[in-house]
Amino acid sequence: MSTSEKVAIVTGASRGIGAAIAKRLGRDGFTVVVNYAGSAEAAAAVVHEIEAAGGKAITAQADVSDVEQVKRMFTSAEAAFGGIDVLVNNAGIMMLAPLAATDDQNFSRQIDINLKGTFNTLREAATRLRSGGRIVNFSTTVVGLKLETYGVYAATKAAVETLTAIMAKEMRGRNINVNAIAPGPTATDLFLNGKSDELIERMSKVNPLERLGTPEDIADAVSFFVGPDSGWINGQVLRANGGVI
Fold it and tell me: Which of these is catalytic: 36, 74, 119, 153?
């Protein structure tokens, strides 16, 4: 199939990195399913922008931590477009705290969205993606940096990296590539909220390119992973972080 006949589900696509990915894949010719949990208006705005640029997209409400909602999203996409070719597991939350100060709600919420949510969509994709498909999961550079207060968040993403490598092997015979991207500090609300200007400036200088990443930087990497030139890359994690580690 040509790119124009392929369908991509992007989770958490109403804002930030997810929105940038959805828009980039729309420009690349994919029909994009813009998933959101609660931001219907923002998701609709992403769809409008994709369509205004000549692309094709729809919104799909689903909390990825809910098994039935995830199943419904995949079923709706198949009914609307005949099949699914790409899954981008971008949905995630980050709640920072030292381990000693991490309460049960903090722990459970991050596990539910970042790990269980990724598992839920991977399980559906394992049987529903068409041959030749692509899966891109999201990790974090903090898995390597191991920064204080990121303990639970980084742990969920380390688990996602393990799922990525194992699923790549389990897709043997299906011609489905499974990879992950591990962004470094990126200028999104998820990263910027709660940080002082001084801390943001300091973190922007950590990598040798001396700037924060942008959502578009990460979308470019996703575009490569789901495109025709990545066919020999499978089960890998790309540290998209400007060289910080």
Answer: 153
CB neighbour class for 72 (10 Å; exposed up to 12, middle 13-18, buried from 19): middle
- List domains and CATH numbers for the chain: 3-238 (3.40.50.720)
Please name the residue that has the structure tokens 């490598």.
165
CA dihedral 90, 133, 63, 34 (to 10 degrees): 70
Give the chain's residues under pLDDT 70. Answer: 1-4
150 is an active site residue = no
